[in-house]
Design a protein that fits this description.
The chain has 404 residues and is an alpha+beta fold. 47% of the residues lie in helices and 22% in strands. It starts with 18 loop residues before the first helix and ends in a 7-residue tail after the last helix.
Length: 404
Amino acid sequence: MRLDQFELTPAASASNDNAELRWLPFLLKLTEHLTTGTLQEVGKLALDYLVEATGASFGDIKLIAGLGENLQAAPILHNVSAKFIAIHGEPALSDLRISVGECISYGRGLLWQAVETRQPVFVEDYSNHPGAIERFRHLGIGGLVIFPICAVDGSVVGVLTLEAPSIQELQSSRNSSVIMATCRIVGSIMDRERIEQELRLAEEQLQLAQFSLEHMSDACFWVGADGQFQFVNEAACKLLGYSRQELLALKVSDIDPAMPPEMWSHYWDNHKHQSGSTFESFHRTQQGQLIPVEITSNYLNFNGKEYCFASARNISDRKRNELLRQEAEKAHRQSEAQFRRIADSNIIGIIFSSNSGQIYDANDAFLEMVGYTREDLQAGRVRWDEMTPRSTFCWTRWPRSSCK
């Protein structure tokens, strides 16, 4: 039987002697759907039955979400009876639906009393209660009962609210116990859906982590305590020229000439006491080529098993650029040394000057040629524009228009 085919049998219409028997099929039907029914399905069945069975004008279920002072009661389901519409009319119905559809922040309204005490709250005259929410005061609400919905661990995960014409009837041990049993069933389903959602999220995160590792540009390896590869990504296979199956059959010593088998245990013992390390090494491809790599390695203990997670970046281009830079710097130093030798030989006069004509260095041959001393040079008294005819200086250094 589907949930929407379950026949509601109001307890209010039954005598006190057989009232519990009238409740029993309802609770059994809810229990049957603990593992398969959704919160929307079971919650709707519960609300439809309770509103009709108790003669309530409306009822709603809210989910408690958030932490600390950021807790909120978020609307899940609501049911408004025909009696409410008949008494208050369509405009009041619209206002009620807007009101019960709102999230209620922590500390606002009486429902948080039920959350904090984990006990039902019974209010005889809600509209005049000091803790009432202002919007609800104008909806003609009389008596109100708020039941906490608890998860399996006892934490409050929601609240069930009923507008009741007779608070005393719902306060009776029989009716109160049935509603609380209903709340426990709904709470179990809320708990199950929360766990299912967390599992789905965990699975998505695991798939994302797996996808990210698999599609990283750097080679990635999970290595066991014996040096055997436990996981390799696609980049590692491409870098070393192995298939995944071939690479998983190897150990670190098979691809890293700096890590022979006899050194592995010593490396592992040291690595266990480090937060992580980055170093350079070489990896040998299947064809025997040595590729320079930068390795970042971290020790992990997961579920009692030890692993080393390492990523290896091909730094062939970096090494090639470093070699080119070193060769360029060497050539520059050699050129400077050669020029200095020529300047110091004093075979010809050599100067170093700015665009303004200031000479800031010169060799002895030039100083002797122009009759200045090195003290004059250091004092800034040797200027190319002062010792050169103006027409020649302007012609060689600046446009003619600036020399007129």
